[in-house]
Amino acid sequence: MDLENVLQNIPSNASETIVEQNLSQPFLKALRFGNLEILPQFPVGRKAVDQAVKKNTENDLLLHTENSPFFYMEVKGRTENLSEQYPDYVKASVQLNGHSIDNDGITESLLELHKD
Q: Kindly report the CA angle at 96 between 61 and 70, in degrees rounded to 5?
């Protein structure tokens, strides 16, 4: 699978859903993760990441146990500017940091600070 070709075929105004279906799924498949190793909308604190991913073992199937994902994936639409100092970047950074600190209300407070 040629991921560069996949990316080039995604419209420049593609929404998060389009990017997730057309890029992140093929990307995870290229990394050799199967459907039972990808859990969409995985809860982290009071929110959810777009996908949690983990290689299954004989006694631990992510889809069944939801136990200790290897990594989280947060997908953004192509129109979001993720260059530093842009609001979309700040929002995404706060979102990811919120996931990593288990969302105890700090995320919402940080978002309010960055609205200016």
A: 25
